[in-house]
Amino acid sequence: MAMGLSGGGGRNRRGRGTRAPMADINVTPLVDVMLVLLIIFMVTAPLLKAAVPIELPDSRAKAMSEEAAQITLSIKRDGVIYFEEEALAPGELADRLAAVTAGPDGKKPLVTLRADKALDYGTVMGVMGELNHAGFTSISLVTGVSSRSGG
Length: 151
What we know:
The protein is α/β, with parallel strands linked by helices. It has a domain at 70-143: 2-Layer Sandwich (Nucleotidyltransferase, domain 5), CATH 3.30.420.270. 27% of the residues lie in helices and 16% in strands. The protein has three helices and seven strands, in the order αββββαβαββ. It has helices at 28-49, 93-98, 121-133, and strands at 58-59, 70-75, 81-83, 86-87, 110-115, 139-141, 144-145. The strands form two sheets. A five-stranded mixed sheet has the order 4-3-2-5-6, with helices on one face. Strands 1-7 form a two-stranded parallel ribbon. Helix 3 (121-133) links the parallel strand 5 and strand 6. One of its GO terms (cellular component) is plasma membrane. GO terms for molecular function: transmembrane transporter activity. Pfam families: ExbD. Keywords: Cell cycle, Cell division, Cell membrane, Membrane, Protein transport, Transmembrane, Transmembrane helix, Transport.
């Protein structure tokens, strides 16, 4: 409970117990709500960016922070590879990756790889091999959020 600043425990000089109304607003609940909303938007923003509909595999891993310079590669169930939102012809991935320039720090941008869960392991590894060959060393694998409990 808030008390006055007079140090007399709510009593003035004459001994009467009078209290002045508090004029301060408690902003702690507002800050708590804003931080929760910020976390929700930070987690959902990378999911809203993807425009290629893919059924992602589930994972209980923590979400990563989104970097400003990143490339999104998506692989649909039928094996078609998308560079951002543009479908690539077979064999075109290597040329598109070679055309990506390094940033001001000399590093290639982060690659976010989204692959349908029905794809075979070899298809995804083939794309990751192309990324490695083109000099991309930071690759994030996007998964869906799992609601299963551990066990």
